[in-house]
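The records we work with from here on pair a chain with its fold. Here is one such record, which you should read through line by line:
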Amino acid sequence: MNKTEALAVLSEIRDALKESVVVSCVSLDGSQVSHISTGGYEIKMKCELDSVSRGIINSILKKYELYLKEQNGYVILRSLKD
């Protein structure tokens, strides 16, 4: 996903989750994603998801064709298309 798409996803996640999930850190990373073509970004958020918040995010993932990976306390969103 490009930077504009990544920012749109972040905005939608923020609006959907409101205060139900505490996100202590957010980054848009492009350089560490070796399988993504130039201009590609992944979203990395430091947070813990429960079943309700996971369900909310899953609907956003489907809309933007993304997948979620959890690693070391981070939630990482990447594009399925890239």
Observations:
- Residues 69 and 76 are 5 Å apart (CA to CA).
- DSSP finds two helices and four strands in the chain.
- The chain has a mean pLDDT of 86.
- The two ends are 7 Å apart (CA to CA).
